Amino acid sequence: MARAVSNGIKLRNTAIVGTLGFLMFFPILWILILSFKTEEDAIRAPLEVLFSSGWTLESFTTVQERSDYFKHFTNSVVIAVGSTFFGILIAVPAAWAMAFVPAKHTKNVLMWMLSTKMLPPVGVLVPIYLIFRDLGLLDTRIGLVIVLMLMNLPIIIWMLYTYFTEIPGEILEAARMDGANLREEVLYVLTPMAIPGMASTVLLNIILAWNEAFWTLNLTAANAAPLTQFIASYSSPEGLFYAKLSAASIMAIAPILIMGWFSQKQLVRGLTFGAVK
Amino acid sequence: MGRIQLEQVSKSFGELQVIPPLDLEIEDGEFVVFVGPSGCGKSTLLRLIAGLEDVTSGQVLIDGTDATDIPPAKRGLAMVFQSYALYPHMSVRKNIAFPLRMAGMDEAERDRRVQNAADVLNLTDYLDRKPAQLSGGQRQRVAIGRAIVREPAAFLFDEPLSNLDAALRVGMRIEISELHQRLGTTMIYVTHDQVEAMTMADKIVVLQSGVIEQVGSPLELYRRPQNRFVAGFIGSPKMNFVSGEAAKPYAAESIGVRPEHLQISSAEGAWKGVIGVSEHLGSDTFFHVLETGLAESITIRADGEVALNRGDTVYLTPEPDKIHRFDARGRRIE
After folding, report:
1. Nearest residue of B to residue A103 by CA position?
2. Are the C-beta atoms of B47 and B214 separated by less than 8 Å?
3. Mutation target among B52, B140, B149 for the A interface, most CBs of A within 10 A
4. Is the pLDDT of residue A245 over 50?
């Protein structure tokens, strides 16, 4: 329902929202600014930083010289896409079963899966570390794919379950009557109808996996190290290098930021899917 | 061919038995309507035939072959759902072609059949639209189109008209009946609307609490209902029931008289009462007669020209050969 809002109130609301938006964006903006400064400029007082004259790409070139950005980038892509891909592969049938052939304890299983997200990851660090060591999975991409997939699986299943329950069961029954077997039913009917939901699930999980720092920092050293490790390497006990740290951070978040920017419509649509019928 | 037999078929959901073991035979080419109040098990029975639900015990035979363990896709039946259940992401053409695609039919033959179905159902102009761009009646026709292209052994309809408005419903009723005459394929049709059942069926199956109360042609059910439930369910307005002293002279526990089988007079007759509510339909008028001492209200169907007002005293006389007699358990006495 439309309500009459006076211009004064509109202005005030715009100001509040604008300020909040700016505050949330500020850290990224600040990192961006610092990344184009020299180390000497970067550690000055904030106002001096802003008005100091030098803008330089020095930090970016140094960072690329000192550590191989593209190797970390490739690792991040493999880990984020891989864990999401295998997560979806497992989650689609799981969510299908729970949405369309629910059993007596389906709700409990869903809650139990979610409850695993309530446990602090550090609580299982030691056993997982030991298992990975024994299986030779430490510092391997496949190891990270597995652990991140398992960590995000509850969220993937929950999201897909929610989208699937929005799809009327009669349509799947119609497909069955029309001669579709289970594979065809999922492939030709369920999946196309769940595409918006699946797309947002995929995007969200790529972002989560991309930014995941706890497991990637603890289970990798050099070979499988993704961009989180790349950033962390610039925050060392010998001292902070603000400009280089900022440049590394910008390089690490740029790809996911760009992807998020282009897919934001899809993301928002997926996350609010089913909120309004 | 489309001969369907149910042998001692029953269905339970956990502890709850919704359909006790029942037998039913549906002949090839018959138009059979399952009718009954909500929750009587008619849709469940249809879904058992379709294979969308597993039977708890008994056998479903299609053309003499035991189909009990055959999945729905392989039973050779087509179903039209109450919600139409069209695939929203596919065009009308793709919706109708879907079962043919699943059957692995080549594209030329697929196109030919879709075109035929579209011609029959007046959908030619809409083939490239998505279901969301169609009206309720058009969507229903697409659902029927999707069913007929397969040339199934039998069609199953699950309350297909209940989402349509009244005028469209009458039109679609006639279209489905014409389709049946043209194709000559077995059709099983589920509805809670006894008017649909009476107008469309070759054979009606009346269900209550999962039990078949009576199977017969529409006129058989109307003329010789086997029990009080069927007598009350078939016919509109409902049959009047009178029990106790007034039924004694007829050697029955209770008797039933249809509203159209009562004579009304302001001078004399068997039962005396006072006019309550009158419903004027133009051609007919339904009078609800109160204070008869027989039942709370007796409904009679009179000619539209009969002029009687609320509060008028009237006399009702049942036509002697149109009185239905029932025993203490509600069964028909011949």
Report:
1. B14
2. no
3. B52
4. yes
Which of B281, B278, B285 shows the shortest CA–CA distance to B303?
A: B285
Q: Are residues B212 and B85 in the same domain?
A: yes
Long-range Cβ pairs for the range A217-222 (8 Å, 24+): A218/A125, A218/A129, A219/A128, A219/A129, A219/A132, A219/A137, A219/A138, A219/A139, A219/A143, A219/A144, A219/A147, A220/A138, A220/A139, A220/A144, A221/A138, A221/A139, A222/A139
Query: Which residues between 123 and 182 in chain A have a beta carbon less than 8 angstroms from any beta carbon of chain B?
Result: 168, 170-171, 173-181
Q: Which of B50, B89, B102 sits opposite A179 (nearest CB)?
A: B102
What ipTM did this prediction achieve? 0.83
CA A24/CA A22 separation, integer angstroms: 5
Task: State the residue range of the domain holding B167.
Answer: 4-232
Q: How many domains would you assign to chain B?
A: 2
Residue of B nearest to A177 (CA): B73
Same domain flag for B36 and B74: yes
d(CA B190, CA B35): 6
Same domain, B100 and B221: yes
**pLDDT tens digits for range B73-95:** 889 899 999 888 999 999 999 99
CATH number of the domain where residue B178 is located:
3.40.50.300
For B103, the closest of A173, A177, A179 (CB atoms) is A179
Cβ neighbours of B86 in A, within 8 Å:
171, 174
Same domain, yes or no, for B68 and B175? yes
Is B99 close to A178, i.e. CB distance below 8 A?
yes
The reply to whether B222 and B326 lie within a common domain is: no
Please answer yes or no on whether A180 and B50 come within 8 Å at the CB atom: no
Q: Are residues B169 and B290 in the same domain?
A: no
Give the residue on A whose Cα is nearest the Cα of B143: A174
Q: What is the pLDDT of residues A28-79, one digit of tens each?
A: 898 998 888 888 787 777 777 777 767 888 888 888 888 888 899 999 999 9
B274 and B192 part of one domain:
no
Q: Which residue of A lies nearest to B104 if distances are taken between CA atoms?
A: A179
Nearest CA among A5, A17, A3, A39 for reference residue A234: A39
| Same domain for B207 and B58 | yes
Mean pLDDT of chain A: 86
- pLDDT surpasses 80 at A268: no
Contact B85 A168 (CB under 8 A): yes
Task: Please give the model's pTM, rounded to 2 decimal places.
Answer: 0.77
* Domains detected in chain A: 7-60 (no CATH), 67-233 (1.10.3720.10)
Under 8 Å between Cβ of B273 and B288: no
In angstroms, what separates the C-alpha of A100 from chain B's closest C-alpha? 13
Mean pLDDT of A156-182: 90
Whether residue A275 is predicted with pLDDT greater than 50 in this model: the reply is: no
Task: Answer yes or no: is pLDDT of B180 > 90.
Answer: yes
